[in-house]
């Protein structure tokens, strides 16, 4: 199956630079992909400077799995100049978690916003850390277009459309199946890549099942397709969903950069929470979805955001135990091997102490 890695995001200028993934991750993709789609905006020259410093911006590569509301805090931080103010220029790499994690390990990207997809690799010994958690519930719904599938028992032997193998879609579904006493090997997965391929598969009937985000589900209903929701994973699964992961090397060698990156990201996050209408406008620039779809996505994400960019110790432990069982590692490693929230907690404390508030 052909994996289409690049999504059709517009080139917006400023600190938003996107390059073809094949050029950035060639060693990784040669092993992981049968083929990949290409064609993205040419990167702009790195001529900007940090606000008030006169210094050139430091360009870093960050992977994004989608253009949905979960990633809007970073989009806002780009559009509002928060990253630039912290001396950073973000080079956006469009990649699902199954591709982003090995790219993070190899050093081809500095940060991955597919934090959840790194957990299995960390449990197996990869030198990575989750440093920020935006949401701790998966925003996925299981949809079907098959009249023969009337309940969960009927999905056995079927294939479910996801983004990439080993990503958060697959992990969340595996956890959901285990919670319902079902064998995770009773179903299979079809990786369709980033973008709207899962939505298209539901509309065309080329697959009987797919995991969709809220915005995709809205557009599916608006299209008049004969499909229905089987389950809402958000209501039953609590886990590391979205956030940021990086390498132990990055935290050791570039601790200041990690702090600046999270500082700008958290500013974007607080803007997201404060200004819904303005956030919807930013989201539309990146995904060009209908207002109804983006608004439903915004509200869904807002309800699942963690208070301070971290997860409680009990959720970390419970998630680690489940993930370890999924990758056949026993006993599970200590959570300190997986998570390091010290920087994001420090950033939130500093913003609170300074009295900083987002401005329109």
Beta-strand fraction estimate:
15-25%
Strand order of the largest sheet: 1-3-2-4-11-5
Number of domains: 2
Count of β-strands:
11
Q: For the CA atoms, what is the radius of gyration?
A: 19 Å
Q: What is the average of the pLDDT values?
A: 87
> How is the main sheet built?
6 strands, mixed
Provide key terms for this protein.
about 350 residues, alpha/beta, D-Maltodextrin-Binding Protein, domain 2, 6-stranded mixed sheet, 5-stranded mixed sheet, 15 helices, 11 strands, about 15% strand
What do these coordinates show?
- The structure is a single chain.
- 41% of the residues lie in helices and 15% in strands.
- It is α/β, with parallel strands linked by helices and 360 residues long.
- It folds into two domains: 16-137 and 239-354, Periplasmic binding protein-like II (D-Maltodextrin-Binding Protein, domain 2, 3-Layer(aba) Sandwich), CATH 3.40.190.10; 141-235, 3-Layer(aba) Sandwich (D-Maltodextrin-Binding Protein, domain 2), CATH 3.40.190.
- The protein has a six-stranded mixed beta sheet, sandwiched between helices.
- It is globular.
- Residues 1-48 have low confidence and may be disordered.
Helices and strands in order:
Blueprint: E1 16-18, H1 21-24, H2 26-32, E2 58-64, H3 72-79, H4 82-85, E3 88-94, H5 97-106, E4 111-112, H6 119-123, E5 128-135, E6 141-144, E7 159-162, H7 168-179, E8 188-191, H8 197-204, E9 209-212, H9 214-222, E10 228-232, E11 242-247, H10 248-253, H11 255-274, H12 276-287, H13 291-304, H14 313-326, H15 342-354
């Amino acid at each position: 199956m052909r994996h289409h890695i690049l999504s059709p995001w517009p080139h917006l200028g400023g600190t938003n630079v996107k390059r073809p993934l094949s050029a950035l991750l060639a060693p990784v993709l040669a092993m992981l992909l049968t083929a990949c789609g290409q064609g993205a905006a040419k990167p702009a020259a790195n001529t900007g400077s940090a606000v008030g410093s006169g210094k050139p911006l430091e360009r870093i590569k960050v992977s994004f799995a989608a253009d949905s509301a979960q990633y809007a805090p970073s989009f806002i931080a780009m559009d509002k100049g928060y990253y630039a103010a912290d001396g950073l220029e973000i080079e956006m790499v469009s990649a699902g978690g199954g591709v982003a994690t090995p790219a993070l390990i190899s050093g081809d990207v500095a940060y991955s916003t597919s934090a959840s997809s790194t957990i299995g690799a960390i449990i197996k010994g990869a030198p990575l850390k989750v440093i920020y958690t935006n949401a701790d519930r998966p925003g996925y719904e299981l949809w079907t277009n098959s009249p023969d599938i009337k309940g969960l028992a009927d999905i056995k032997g079927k294939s479910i459309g996801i983004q990439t193998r080993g990503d958060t879609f697959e992990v969340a579904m595996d956890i959901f199946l285990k919670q319902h006493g079902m064998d995770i090997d009773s179903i299979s997965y079809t990786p369709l890549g980033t973008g709207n391929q899962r939505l298209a598969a539901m509309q065309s009937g080329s697959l009987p099942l797919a995991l969709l985000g809220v915005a995709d589900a809205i557009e599916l209903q608006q299209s008049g397709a004969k499909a229905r929701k089987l389950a809402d994973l958000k209501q039953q699964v609590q886990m590391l969903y979205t956030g940021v992961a990086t390498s132990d090397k990055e935290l050791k060698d570039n601790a200041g950069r990690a702090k600046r990156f999270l500082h700008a990201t958290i500013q974007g996050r607080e803007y997201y929470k404060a200004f819904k209408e303005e956030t919807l406008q930013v989201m539309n620039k990146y995904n060009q979805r209908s207002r109804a779809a983006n608004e439903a996505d915004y509200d869904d994400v807002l309800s699942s955001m963690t208070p301070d960019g971290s997860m409680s110790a009990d959720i970390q432990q419970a998630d680690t135990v489940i993930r370890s069982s999924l990758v056949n590692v026993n006993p599970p490693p200590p959570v300190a091997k997986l998570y390091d929230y010290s920087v994001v907690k420090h950033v939130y404390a500093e913003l609170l102490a300074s009295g900083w508030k987002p401005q329109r």
